[in-house]
Amino acid sequence: MKHLLVPIGSTDNSINTLQYAIDFAEAVNAKVFVMRAYKVLSKAGTFVNADDTMQRETNLYLRTMINAVDRKNVTIKMISAKGNVLESITSINRELNIDLIIMGPKSNSIKEEMFLGSTSGSILKQTDIPMLVIPEGYKFSPIKSVLTAFKSGVMNKKNVLDPLHKILETFVASSNLLLVKTPDYTEEDLVLDSELKRGQNNLTVTENATTFLGVLEHFQSHNPDLLCVFRRKRGFFQKLWEKNSIQKKEFNCNVPVLVLRGKL
Asked: pLDDT digit string (tens) for 140-185?
């Protein structure tokens, strides 16, 4: 885990998210790339240097954000990207091979009752890059316990669990697995991939209608510092991902959520 991408929005929580990313990067020995996307509308009468002006303003905003945090000894680089956020992230990943996106749940100023805003939600929904969602106001502390929830122990992609393993090894954290047997489970789903069992401290098997409900039932008893779930077509956020925005009454979490790629 060498390259961390932190998309910066316009919320008051952005500085907190950036500080968490820097603290996390120091622990895992990674570089931080802070990005902000900007758009320039092409209309008749628009002055010629609109692009340059927007880029300067974006760089100034990023520089102001970076100057407001404790940079420690972490290498931090700015990226001002012209275009929409998703396209920009795709281009940046193609060039830098991003290992993890770190974002707040709301990247733009939206209503308090929302857990994920449309921008954060669309990134979570549409990118294959592992993502760490940091709750608003959450301060970094060493991760001691991780709860990993899943409905199938089959891993069809290589290196899917790399971010999780890096976290477990860096912080010497306990690894608690939650296997949720949903109504459509198969016997194959109950066989754990060797990479899942790596570093495992505890396995809980539960029967619930969805992985999401299994987490709701067992979260408090495990009391983890980090919740790890998988982005799959029929996975944890299946119902929630019918739209990009997610309300707190539908899902809320008071610890960071690590979303891995999983099956497509």
From this structure: 999 999 999 998 998 877 889 999 999 999 999 999 999 999 998 9
CA distance 233 to 241: 9
The whole-chain average pLDDT of the chain stands at 83
Dig out the tokens for 138 from the structure: 């959450």
For the chain, the three-class secondary structure string (H helix, E strand, C coil) is CCEEEEECCCCCCHHHHHHHHHHHHHHHCCEEEEEEEECCCCCCCCCCCHHHHHHHHHHHHHHHHHHCCCCCCCCEEEEEEECCHHHHHHHHHHHHCCCEEEECCCCCCCCCCEEECHHHHHHHHHCCCCEEECCCCCCCCCCCEEEEEECCCCCCCCCCCHHHHHHHHHHCCEEEEEEEECCCCCHHHHCCCHHHHCCEEEEEEEECCCHHHHHHHHHHHHCCCEEEEECCCCCCCCCHHHCCCEECCCCCCCCCEEEECCCC
Contact in structure between 212 and 236 (CB atoms under 8 Å): yes
Please state, in angstroms and as integers, the Cα–Cα distance from residue 126 to each residue in 6, 34, 147, 229, following that order: 16, 20, 24, 15
Nearest-angstrom CA–CA distance, 227 and 148:
6
- Token pair belonging to 78: 């700015």
Delineate the domains of the chain, giving CATH numbers in brackets: 3-44+51-133 (3.40.50.620), 145-257 (3.40.50.620)
Q: pLDDT, tens digit, for every residue of 185-206?
A: 999 999 999 988 887 889 999 9
The mean per-residue pLDDT over the stretch 100-125 comes to: 64
Q: Give residue 23's pLDDT.
A: 98
Distance CA 238, CA 250 (A): 12
Question: If pLDDT is split at 50, 70 and 90, which confidence band does 120 have?
Answer: low
